[in-house]
Specification:
101 residues; signal; Lectin-like protein BA14k
């Protein structure tokens, strides 16, 4: 019987030591977001130079895409395709076209 109580005491002691840190919350539903200013999240791109400024929201560089895909460049110049970005969204991704060469 003493062995049972000793085993139970050791087991509960280990559970208490391991269970309390893992049961602590991470800070609520807005964990860390209230401390960050998300309005300025794109500001770091201003310091990278003109090559990165024209990439838009998804980092698509249309000049580089048209340079690597001369057939698309000709289609855009002829007015057959609205832009290189449109071509990539509609056809280029499916065709496996490279974004840079």
């Amino acid at each position: 019987m003493k062995m049972l109580w000793a085993t139970a005491a050791v087991g509960l002691g280990l559970l208490a030591a391991v269970g309390s840190p893992s049961a602590q919350p991470y800070g609520g539903p807005d964990y860390g977001y209230r401390d960050r200013d998300y309005r300025d999240r794109g500001r770091d791109y201003d310091d990278r130079g003109p090559r990165y400024r024209d990439r838009g929201a998804y980092g698509f560089d249309e000049r580089e895409y048209l340079r690597c895909n001369p057939d698309v460049r000709r289609a855009v110049a002829r007015g057959q395709m609205e832009s290189g970005a449109t071509h990539y969204r509609v056809f280029g991704r499916r065709e496996g076209r490279r974004l840079s060469c």
